[in-house]
Amino acid sequence: MSFDSIPIHVVPPGEPGLTGNAPPLLRELLEMVRRLLETGEPSAIDLSALPLTPADLDWLRDKLGTGEIGVTLQANGESTLNETACPGVWWVTHHNEQGAVTSQFIEVAFVPDLVKAHPRDVEIGSEYLELLVSDL
Amino acid sequence: MQGPLIDTLARRGVTRRTFLKYCATLASMMALPPTAGRAMAEAMAAARRPSVIWLPFQECTGCTESITRSHSPTIEGMIFDMISLDYQETLMAAAGHQAEEARQNAMKDNAGKYLLIVDGSIPLGHDGAYSCIGGRSNVDMLKEAAAGAAAVIAVGSCASFGGIPKANPNPTGAVSVSDLVKDKPIVNIPGCPPIPVVMTGVLAHYLTFGSLPELDDKGRPKSFYGNTIHDRCYRRPFYDQGKFAKTFDDEGARQGWCLFELGCKGPVTHNACATVKWNGGTSWPVESGHGCLGCSEPDFWDGGSFYKALSAPADPLKFAAAAAVVGAGAGVAVSVANRVKKNTAKATHETTTLADLEK
Over chain A, what HEC string results? Predict the structure, then answer.
């Protein structure tokens, strides 16, 4: 017997619309961008911690637009770090290996930390390069 | 196996970025500020393995199963490996005197610094004779191990609240860890079994900040037990609209309506199942069509039938307006009903003796 033959279909309730919780985030982002410019301090908003409906997120995403850079990270599932039309504002989505969204952030930074290579990892890379060179 | 956590993770193919991403998500689940993810990653990456002694008492090993077999190798499982688990009967290779010696050594070498994890309730009846390890009663071992612990983590409903062994008529005189240990910080992680990530979250918090997370009035981490199942349930809009399944195979059940009338204990149960879910985020009881049993609340086994509604449903429109109030009211009603029930049960039951068990 396949699961398809079980006659239970969850019908999601009518998509809740805009709650009005998204617009204030733009003001918060503005503050964060100003702080980045003045002090260089990066910051982030945890979107999964806020009462935002899918419609709110779409609205926010639409307002912020799409920028020039999109980074894809394959680490225990896919993560995307996409710059928005406002440089320095990044839309970050983490997926697990099953493809479900595990967390979602808006990061304000020149480059998100996750993108930078850690010095210790660079060291390991240089050891590998030395190995390649010694084999020449 | 010694050295910072990140090196051990790297040897297992977990990259720094994977770990950073994991910590960001963990911090988000624990309702910590977004910047805490990075702090957590840095602190945990450099952390030395804390000594952990795990004592299993009157339990079914379901909690161990939940945590060690949560999913094929998750970082959760690996972090769990990274602690220096100096004593865990189910997992350790040593047995008999060697095992007990390992426990004694760990307690001596890390006096005042080790974490003590307990799963299972502790029977006090007949001087604790109902559950013994190496000829010593559970209560005796708990008191000895707790004396030198930095903190105690009670895993599962049995260790947290007494659980199923404590259910009426409680033949073994089972009690919880907090009934016996009064002078150490205790974190309760109830659930039957508890959600694996809660365990990791508490360990991560301890490794990062050197302290235990904020707890609610029942000793549970607020970040995971702060909301009720009902508060975060995806079927909540149906409750608000007054749409209830009346049986398990009626039209309402097929439409995925609210399971309140089928006995769902979601409104009075604090846990994170609705957001974290189970089996690697696949599903959870309500999503699979069954109401919440309330397993992370004290005495859930004695709360009446799992299939009896918390209170008689009122007019749907009134429900929508007063949903929150009804939820709270239902909680009080249930606990009063429980108390009455418990007293009746106590009055009608005779004390079970050893002779009864041998019949």
Answer: CCHHHCCCCCCCCCCCCCCCCCHHHHHHHHHHHHHHHHHCCCEEEEHHHCCCCHHHHHHHHHHHCCCCCEEEEECCCEEEEEECCCCCEEEEEEECCCCCEEEEEEEECCCCCCCCCCHHHHHHHHHHHHHHHHCC
pLDDT of residue B57: 94
**A75 CA: distance to closest CA in chain B (Å):** 5
DSSP E strand stretches across chain B:
51-56, 84-87, 114-119, 122-123, 132-133, 136-137, 149-155, 174-175, 186-189
Query: Does residue A9 sit within a domain?
Result: no
Q: Tens digit of pLDDT for each residue in B95-137? A: 888 888 989 999 999 999 899 999 999 999 999 999 999 889 9
Where along chain B do its domains lie?
A: 48-225, 229-346
CATH topology of domain B229-346: Cytochrome-c3 Hydrogenase; Chain A, domain 2 (4.10.480)
- pLDDT, one tens digit per residue, over B288-303 is 999 999 999 999 999 8
Domain count, chain A: 1
Amino acid at the residue B280: G
Query: Which carries the bigger pLDDT value, residue B307 or residue B334?
Result: B307
Q: CB neighbours (10 Å) of residue B1? A: 9
Domain that holds residue A99: 15-134
CATH 3.40.50.300 for domain B48-225, yes or no, is: no
Chain A: closest CA distance from residue B28 (Å): 7
B interface with A, Cβ–Cβ below 8 Å: 14-18, 20-22, 24-25, 28-29, 31, 33-35, 38, 75, 234, 237-238, 241, 253-256, 280-282, 287, 289
Q: Read off the CATH number of the domain in which A23 is found.
A: 3.30.1370.140
Contact A76 B241 (CB under 8 A): no
Q: Which of A12, A97, A114 sits opposite B20 (nearest CB)?
A: A114
